[in-house]
Amino acid sequence: MLRQRGPKGSCLRVTFSDVAFYRWLLDRGLTPRKSLTLGPLQVPDNYLLPAVRGLLDGDGSIINTIVVPNPRRYPQHQYRRLQVVFLSANRTHVEWIQRSLLRVLGVAGTVFRRERPPHHTLYQLKYGKHAGITLLRALYADASSPRLQRKWRIWDAYQFDPPETRMWTRRSDEIGQT
């Protein structure tokens, strides 16, 4: 492992020199400049959630924010928003994640296209609050599984400090029983 300095601080970089392992990764669909070239992965359903957790750790976000929709008129009206987002420059890849998670977990996400001239177009697969809760529960069900701690801590904070919601909008399976 090599520590490198970048514009936002230092980061770790791992370099593999095993040709057989590199070819194995290529056979599985991983390629150089993967965000541009990565399409559907060949992952059996019993390994889908660990693969998706890795994709979330690498090219995704868990967002837990406080939203004040009309701060001037109703400054006290606020709510917490949870979103799970996957990013890629390849639409085929995010659509594969979307179809796979719908098939395995029954959660529906939406794909958005973001133009970023002069850069490549970016595709975002977003899951809202209820789908995000279902997804994150499944991804982090096994506490011993490897995970990126900084992203898991966002989910853990949300999970153990459930948002106050109006009782007619809160689902009984959202966090705990009501």
Protein architecture, described:
This protein is α+β, with helices and mostly antiparallel strands and 178 residues long. It has a single domain (32-160), classed as Endonuclease I-creI. The chain has helices at 19-27, 34-37, 48-59, 91-105, 129-139, 149-160, and strands spanning 2-6, 9-13, 60-67, 79-88, 110-114, 122-127. A four-stranded antiparallel sheet has the order 3-4-6-5. The chain has a two-stranded antiparallel sheet with strand order 1-2. Strand 1 (2-6) and strand 2 (9-13) form a beta hairpin. The termini are far apart. The mean pLDDT is 83.
General shape: globular
Instruction: Please give the domain count.
Output: 1
N→C terminal distance: 48 Å
CATH architecture: Roll
CATH topology: Endonuclease I-creI
Cα-atom Rg, whole angstroms? Answer: 18 Å
CATH class: Alpha Beta
Number of distinct beta strands? 6
Features:
single chain, 178 residues, alpha+beta, Endonuclease I-creI, two-stranded antiparallel ribbon, 6 strands, 35% helix, globular
